[in-house]
Write a structure and sequence with these properties.
The structure is a single chain. This protein is mainly β and 85 residues long. It has one domain. The chain has no helices and six strands. The strands form two sheets. Strands 1-2-4 form a three-stranded antiparallel β-sheet, with no helix packed on it. β1 and β2 form a beta hairpin. It starts with a strand and ends in a 10-residue tail after the last strand. The relative contact order is 0.28. The model has no long low-confidence stretch (mean pLDDT 92). The structure holds zinc ion (ZN).
Length: 85
């Protein structure tokens, strides 16, 4: 059985950025875009190497990269609220 959980990922300003199905334990480092269950920022369809921003405070959330052939957001740890499972 797979372990995983849907988590709310928030900016440090408090804005909820997206919901994400996180598999396994540990700190959230990157998010596979196809695993977002809600997307309040418009990450789906963002171009590779673009740097999405928080719609509220304008801080960069990270950078879109291809990971194992899938677009993913590598999180800027300074902007995203720390999440541990
Ligand atoms: Zn923000």
């Amino acid at each position: 059985m797979k372990t995983g959980k849907i988590i709310d990922v928030k900016c440090r300003c408090g804005y909820t950025l997206f919901r994400y199905y996180k598999a396994g334990k540990g700190r959230l480092i990157k998010c596979i875009i196809s695993r977002l269950t809600e997307d309040f920022v418009g990450l789906k369809g963002a171009e590779t190497f673009s740097r999405p921003k928080c719609p509220k405070c304008g801080k960069e959330l990270g950078i879109i990269k291809m990971i194992h052939g899938e677009p993913a957001l590598k999180l800027n740890q300074g902007t995203i609220e720390t999440i541990r499972l």
